[in-house]
Write a structure and sequence with these properties.
heterodimer, A: mainly alpha, Cytochrome C Oxidase, Chain A, 17 helices, B: alpha+beta, Immunoglobulin-like, Cytochrome Bc1 Complex, Chain D, domain 2, 3-stranded mixed beta sheet, elongated
Chain lengths: 534, 379
């Protein structure tokens, strides 16, 4: 590595990292920006997690003990917003920054300066959002789905800051996705066809298109809110000729693809990790690509399954029910492919593999409850209860979040040049795995028994499961400090990693030394394309 | 930890556990409910759940077998297959077939749920922040029964100053009463933000949307009290607006309704008649002293600046409509509440008239309960 940097020192256009804080402020290097994104998202993960623990602490027992209903609503809202837009999405962008150029043999992202901008917008967006907590009437309190008119006529003044923060996040995401698309379509190493790309690259390409399609819709809906609040329009107010349900249609037209934005890159990560540790090629590579594309397409035509109880006409209910049920088909294909990849492999169970297998199992459980929710008549009972809370946390936490953790353990030797501590890694996995199931599994029961979501206090028959759920949440939450410790320990030292790192790993990122030099693939020659994907 | 301290902890812990064990209800499943629809929904739920369990056993079973047998530590060599078109075709087709089979009963149930015609009783359900209003619609306005239904659980129970009773958070002052074996239609709407009216035992969950009316219906097969809650986040007290429906025998319902209609007719008569200035002043003084005097004082001088004086104030010297508006809707950012939902039209007309003519205000104008009603209806 030092040789590489040495050589570049003589060249004004290719230099190593600058010194001090300005390295991070001014950097246009995809690896630095990837690191920034990952640390930012981890900070947001802890912040959003703290909000979640406030919620779970209040729900530990019936009655109001710790917070007032007004603040409780601010916590549920901020927890959702921070986790979705601050933790999960930036983490995947961080992984994309680190990995996409290395996996396609490109020297950097196509638009490095824009890459810097799209990151540095985020701390301002979330700083502004978080500061509303200290405003007189408090932070946004209308849920992360911010249904009008609760979020317009009846909202606290901080809603305007929220709208501006959402605009900034949207700009950041759109710039990030443009970068991903341009990089993937133009900067693949010569000879690499689309169908030779690793699945992580594929799923991110599809995700980036989803982002470009729907972030403007989100921007549109918050702008309509802004107009309603400050400029006398009535998009969402029946009193002025508008319709509160219009808000939900526009929001979920963004919101449903958004759900897949948070899970498609996870599919890519898991599709890289399982073949490595099964020492066997990914089963059905082509069908994985087609399934991802089908899921992305379907995500645009199912939005109103979030709104089965708003009083749509029967034909609308039927259409959205059928379309939603269809999603089970490509999703099923993916799960079957992962199982077939494991089948007759020669598996070992290092930490990334443990997280990946847990992903497949627990994501599938989340998929099952999703299939149940798709059945519209039954959804009349499930809707807005803890059953839904259990469902989407199963796909988001042991789904997206586990895949991000798997990715960190899998690629951190490449990033830092050091192996992580396997014993600590496995401890972290088991604590997380147990904690998450204690937290969210009982929520299926209290949801079916009739507990609505987003309530600060509950009837006595829900007491036992809520207590269990809160205990699980604290186990899971505090285990993440161990994760922080493991990552810092790995950065500071550890067993040196080889270039290959994992004996079953395939892909161009494993052909460069560990840690990856500051600049990789600076010339397009000499790349061995054989088995660029696992 | 010394012994005394430990035993204190044990006592605390056992108290904690027993307090919840007292009401322990380890229900893990959806209620079957008391209507044909709720039973159909329950069956659908169990079928789709069963399908998921079977697929889960197959998929997770294969994974577990694989994890036990196909591990490097057993010295196995990895296989080299990475596609199998026949297999991939099969596991695409089978889910499609399962879904098609599922779609049939789901469609039938949904069809039935949407068939809201032929109701014998129509009830308007209106969501407010944070209570429900029920109106038994009747072509004869003198017979229209209308009341608010709000949480009965006292603050002391919520803030842990008193023991929580059995129906904690699920008790209301006025239950919705409907007869058994009768087709009842609910017309669901809201006054302010979106609420959602949910009775799990009827499998009814309908969003209450301001400015729009959506229907739902039920035929309860068993008498009893059925409890639910608002299901859509509607602000601060979203968790504190339960729905309680009492299903009674038809005779009992008719008796109950007749009683309520008599009360409604009495109020209607009071509100509908033409009041004289003296009657308004007398009633107004009584209402003022009961409701307003605590802040604005018996002599109308108030306690400025928090509670302004009503003597010769711009409110009194201005038009009567503005005065009425403040009394009905309150004044944002001040302690002045909206009394429109708390007092009936006669009380409001009386108190407004009183305030404009007492303490030397002598405006000489007055307003009739009928006009108050018209203003409220126009809002």
């Amino acid at each position: 590595m030092s040789a590489v940097i040495e050589e570049h020192h003589h060249d004004d256009h290719h230099h190593g990292p600058a010194k001090g804080i300005m390295r991070w402020v001014l950097t246009t290097n995809h690896k630095d920006i990837g690191t920034l994104y990952l640390w930012f998202s981890f900070a947001m993960f802890l912040l959003g997690g703290t909000f979640a623990l406030v919620i779970r602490a209040e729900l530990f027992q019936p009655g109001l003990q710790i917070v007032h209903p007004e603040f409780f609503n601010q916590m549920t809202t901020m927890h959702g917003l921070v986790m979705v837009f601050g933790a999960v999405m930036p983490a995947f962008v961080g992984l994309a920054n680190w990995l996409i150029p290395m996996q396609i043999g490109a020297p950097d992202m196509a638009l490095p300066r824009m890459n810097n901008y799209s990151f540095w917008i985020l701390p301002f967006a979330f700083g502004m959002l978080a500061l509303t907590l200290f405003s007189e009437a408090g932070a946004p309190n209308f849920g992360w789905t911010f249904y009008a008119p609760l979020s317009t006529e009846y909202a606290p003044p901080s809603v305007t800051y929220f709208i501006f923060a959402v605009h900034l996040m949207g700009i950041s995401s759109i710039m990030g996705s443009i970068n991903v698309i341009v990089t993937i379509l133009n900067m693949r190493t010569p000879g690499m066809t689309l169908m030779q790309m690793p699945l992580f690259v594929w799923t991110w390409l599809i995700t980036a298109y989803l982002l470009i399609a729907v972030m403007p819709v989100l921007a549109g809906v918050v702008t309509m809110m802004l107009m309603d609040i400050h400029f006398g329009t009535a998009f969402f107010s029946a009193g002025g000729g508008g319709d509160p349900v219009l808000f939900q249609h526009v929001f979920w037209f963004f919101g449903h693809p958004e759900v897949y934005i948070m899970i498609l890159p996870a599919f890519g990560v898991v599709s890289a990790i399982i073949p490595t540790f099964a020492r066997k090629k990914l089963f059905g590579y082509a069908s994985m690509v087609y399934a991802s594309a089908s899921i992305a397409f379907l995500s645009f035509i199912v939005w109103a399954h979030h709104m089965f109880t708003v009083g749509m006409p029967l034909s609308g209910e039927l259409y959205f029910m059928y379309a939603t049920m269809l999603i089970a088909v490509p999703t099923g294909v993916k799960v079957f492919n992962w199982v077939a990849t494991m089948w007759q492999g020669a598996m070992t169970f290092e930490t990334p593999m443990l997280f990946a297998i847990a992903f497949v199992i627990l994501f599938t459980i989340g998929g099952f409850s999703g299939l149940m929710l798709a059945i519209a008549p039954a959804d009349f009972q499930y809707h807005d209860t803890y059953f839904v809370v259990a469902h989407f946390h199963y796909v988001l936490v042991p789904g997206s979040v586990f895949s991000i953790m798997a990715a960190v353990y899998y690629w951190i030797p490449k990033w830092t040049g050091n192996m992580y501590d396997e014993t600590l890694g496995k401890t972290h996995f088991w604590l997380s795995f147990v904690g998450i199931n204690i937290t969210f599994f009982p929520q299926h029961f209290i949801g079916l028994a009739g507990m609505p979501r987003r309530i600060p206090d509950y009837a006595l028959q829900f007491a036992d499961y809520n207590m269990i759920s809160s205990i699980g949440a604290f186990i899971f939450g505090f285990s993440q400090l161990l994760f922080l410790f493991i990552v810092i320990k790995t950065i500071r030292g550890g067993k040196p990693a080889t270039a290959q790192v994992w004996d079953g790993a395939h892909g161009l990122e494993w052909t460069v030394p560990s840690p990856a030099p500051y600049h990789t693939f600076t010339t397009p020659e000499g790349v061995n394309l054989k088995e660029a994907h696992g | 930890m010394d012994k005394a301290k430990r035993s204190r902890w044990l006592v605390a812990l056992s108290l904690l556990l027993s307090s919840s064990a007292l009401y322990a209800d380890w229900t893990v499943n959806m209620r079957k409910g008391v209507t044909e629809i709720s039973e159909k929904v329950y069956d659908l739920h169990m079928i789709i759940f069963g399908v998921c369990v079977v697929i889960g056993i197959l998929v997770f079973g294969a994974m577990i077998v694989s994890m036990l047998m196909h591990r490097k530590s057993l010295g196995v060599e990895p296989a080299t297959f990475h596609e199998n078109h026949k297999l991939e075709f099969i596991w695409t087709i089978i889910p499609i077939v399962i879904l098609l089979v599922m779609a049939v009963p789901a469609t039938q149930t949904l069809n039935a749920m949407y068939d809201a015609g032929n109701a014998e009783i129509d009830i308007e359900v209106r969501g407010y922040q944070w209570k429900w209003q029920y109106t038994y619609l009747n072509d004869d306005p003198t017979q229209e029964v209308k009341f608010m239904s709000s949480l009965l659980t006292p603050q002391d129970e919520i803030y842990n100053k008193a023991a929580k009773r059995e129906h904690y958070l699920l008790d209301v002052d006025n239950e919705l009463v409907i007869p058994v074996d009768t087709r009842v239609r609910f017309l669901v709407t809201a006054e302010d933000v979106i609420h959602s009216w949910w009775v799990p035992d009827f499998a009814i969950k309908r969003d209450a949307i301001p400015g729009f009316v959506h229907e739902a219906w039920t035929v309860a097969k068993k008498t009893g009290i059925y409890r639910g809650q608002c299901a859509e986040l509607c602000g601060k007290d979203h968790g504190f607006m339960p729905v309680v429906v009492r299903v009674v025998e038809k005779d009992e319902y008719n008796t109950w309704l007749a009683e309520k209609q008599a009360e409604a007719a009495a109020v209607y008569e009071i509100v509908g008649k033409e009041w004289t200035q003296d009657e308004l002043m007398a009633e107004g003084e009584a209402v003022y002293n009961r409701v307003c005097a605590a802040c604005h004082q018996a002599n109308g001088q108030g306690l400025p600046p928090a509670f302004p004086s009503l003597v010769g104030s711009p409110l009194i010297t201005g038009p009567i409509e503005g005065h009425l508006d403040i009394v009905l809707n309150g004044k944002a950012g001040t302690a002045m509440q909206a009394f429109g939902a708390q007092l009936n039209a006669a009380e409001i007309a009386a108190v407004v008239t009183y305030e404009r003519n007492a303490w030397g205000n002598n405006r000489g104008d007055s307003i009739q309960p009928r006009e108050v009603n018209e203003m409220m209806a126009g809002q």
